[in-house]
Design brief:
CATH superfamily of the largest domain: Nucleotide-binding domain of ferredoxin-NADP reductase (FNR) module
Shape: globular
Strand content: 25-35%
Order of helices and strands: EEHEEEEHEEHEEHEHEEEHEE
CATH architecture of the largest domain: 3-Layer(aba) Sandwich
Structural class: alpha+beta
Number of domains: 3
Largest sheet: 7 strands, antiparallel
Number of helices: 6
Bound molecules: flavin-adenine dinucleotide, FE2/S2 (inorganic) cluster
CATH topology of the largest domain: Rossmann fold
Helix content: 10-25%
Length: 266
């Protein structure tokens, strides 16, 4: 869909948003914009992602790590919003301004935008990352409703960034009953958008499975962004495949990461 390039850049800033009990820290990492020589950066859209590999990875880990693009602007830089999960994100969390980073991107496809269509934006946890810019860019935000489910405190998510732009509801999950209530909300809301609305979602697999199940039951379709583990990010290693109903196994990095829910098996 878009061209992509591997470019060298540097860290501009890191902003820390804290961590929940037992959860890794949440950080916005901003890199210097590598410039618009690669025209794809001018055209990037929410849902697309980058592979990030700082020099400090050395040989461990060997491969870069994929992250949704939170924002990309030649003046402000390119930002990702991530949660510390393991060795790669731990090293990203210790970066300092000016350190060198290799960036591949923008990669993959993007969420659909239909300005006149009621659109349900479903975000689970760190799956909120692509949606800050999605809601900000939308030409008719009055058509958007964002529902955000999270376990760590809201303060971890830079939630203010989405506020005031469209209808936004955050649902904090602290116990099993909260989860059941959140699932009930999805079961009640998704069908309202199955006929002539648009549903877009990003979050953990069980969250996407619930959305797909409800959309399937009501003859609707949702766009789901899959976060399969990736190595190359460009369709070369087949490390990230998912089952496409008509095409068989397809690379999430090259064919996705956004798929219509009725096209794939989860
Ligand atoms: C297209 C795409 C967009 C993404 N966007 C974001 C984002 O915006 N913000 C963000 O925080 N994360 C995002 N992720 C997930 C992110 O890539 C992983 O958290 C990261 O690669 C973990 O690297 P690590 O070296 O710290 O962890 P590792 O040491 O590799 O693994 C640590 C733990 O995390 C688990 N893990 C690793 N990768 C994933 C994954 N993809 N899904 C679920 N569990 C995983 C491992 O199984 C292990 O338990 C995205 C993934 C994809 C494919
Ligand atoms: S990560 Fe290599 S094919 Fe997708």
């Amino acid at each position: 869909m878009f061209g992509n390039a591997c470019q060298d850049t540097t860290v501009k800033s890191l902003t820390r948003f804290g961590k929940g009990e037992g959860d890794g820290e949440f950080i916005e990492l901003t890199l210097e914009h590598p410039g618009l020589d690669n025209a794809a950066w001018k055209l990037w859209k929410p849902g697309q992602f980058v592979m990030v590999r700082p020099e400090s990875f050395g040989l461990d880990p060997l491969m870069g790590r994929p992250f949704s693009i939170t924002s990309a602007d030649e003046e402000q830089g390119i930002s990702i919003f991530f949660q510390v999960m393991g060795q790669g994100t731990r090293k990203l969390a210790s970066l300092k301004p000016g350190e060198p980073v290799t960036l591949w991107g923008p990669l993959g496809n993007a969420f659909a935008v239909r300005k006149d269509t009621p659109t349900l934006v479903l975000a689970g946890g760190i799956g909120i990352a692509p949606f800050y810019e999605y809601v900000k860019r939308h030409e008719q935000p009055e058509n958007l409703r964002m529902i955000f489910g999270h376990r760590p405190p809201l303060a971890c998510y830079n939630w203010e960034r989405a506020q005031g732009v469209c209808s936004c509801e955050a649902h904090h999950e602290t116990c099993r009953q909260d989860l059941m209530d959140f699932i009930a909300l999805i079961e009640e809301t998704v069908p309202q958008y199955c006929n002539d609305g648009l549903i877009i979602a990003c979050g953990p697999l069980p969250f996407l499975e619930t959305i797909k199940k409800v959309a399937d039951q009501h003859g609707g379709r949702a766009q789901l962004s899959l976060e399969n583990r990736m190595a190359c990010g460009v369709g070369a290693c087949l490390g990230c495949v998912c089952d496409h109903k008509t095409e068989g196994p397809v690379s999430v990095c090259a064919r996705g990461p956004v798929f219509w829910s009725d096209e794939i098996e989860l």
